[in-house]
Specification:
18% strand, 282 residues, alpha/beta, elongated, 7-stranded mixed beta sheet
Length: 282
């Protein structure tokens, strides 16, 4: 069954009375080149377990099943399961789970589903509306994930993979850089989807680090300071931190002076080392 053929997809969905849900950000891939490239970019083998977040009609799921030993796809929309039973028929290494990935005991879930696998990877076409929360769940969980390959909105992907201290940097950029090495793999045009969204996408790769790259004494406090620094992007980092962290401006100014950081600098110009030093001093 060609799941990238528009007529085929419409027939399958019609048989099961399925309609798209805007609330769940459902846009299904119809470009036949994208999913095979995503799957092969993992470098998976028969000892690899792959977690997919959102199965859609199974286009990516099928490709993952061809390269990995075990595929577990967590799909929130239970209406898709009759469709998936048809589109994924014949694959015995796929397990479908009807659940919300954000509400699972994530580490316990991976341990249960991928017991016996030599490595665990994540591959998904992420809904635009929940990209950052899912990415941060994967990185902050401490789960033994070896590689993450996900498709996201282009603007979000560029921010996730930007360098700290660059024009595109945001709080999520700092968080990704703290936990992983990132890169943009390839672009995906809006015409690759049904229904066609109003924006283009990119496929990115995240490689969670096995050992910490940065020395931070209190991670929660550090990320709070980072979020405060970027909370008011039109203001200086000093003013944004003071306003949103609830610390007197004079105190924050003293920290900047002590660290020899320009008090007029904006958050996106701060390096990772400077952000860490500001958080440590505060």
């Amino acid at each position: 069954m060609d799941l990238c053929d528009l007529a085929t997809i419409k027939k399958v969905m019609s048989r099961h009375g399925f309609t798209f849900s805007k609330a769940l950000g459902q846009n299904f891939l119809i470009n036949p080149d994208v999913c095979p490239e995503m799957a092969h970019s993992l470098g998976a083998n028969e000892k690899t377990g792959v977690l997919e977040i959102g199965a859609g009609v199974g286009v990516l799921t099928k490709e993952l099943a061809k390269v990995a030993g075990r595929v577990v796809s967590v799909e929130l929309d239970k209406r898709l399961f009759p469709v998936l039973e048809e589109t994924l028929d014949g694959f015995d290494n796929i397990e479908l789970v009807n659940d919300d990935i954000m509400k699972l005991d994530f580490c316990a879930f991976l341990e249960e589903k991928f017991d016996g696998c030599d490595s665990i990877m994540v591959c998904a076409n992420l809904p635009y509306y929940i990209t950052s929360p899912i990415v941060m769940l994967l990185l902050e969980s401490g789960a033994p994930i070896d590689k993450i390959v996900v498709m996201v909105q282009k603007e979000a992907g560029e921010r996730l993979c930007a360098g700290v201290g660059s024009r595109l940097a945001g709080a999520v950029t700092v968080a990704v850089n703290y936990y992983a090495d990132s890169e943009i793999l390839f672009d995906v045009g809006r015409e690759s989807f049904m229904p066609s969204p109003k924006v283009d996408s990119v496929v990115i790769s995240l490689m969670p680090r096995k050992e910490k790259k940065y020395n931070v004494s209190d991670e929660r406090h550090f990320f709070t300071v980072v979020k405060c620094a970027f909370a008011q992007r039109r203001k200086t980092a000093l003013n944004s931190i003071s306003n949103t962290l609830g610390v007197k401006k004079e105190m924050v100014a003293d920290v900047f002076d002590k660290l020899a950081i320009d008090k007029n600098i904006r958050a996106e110009k701060l390096t990772m080392e400077e952000l860490i030093s500001i958080a440590e001093q505060l």
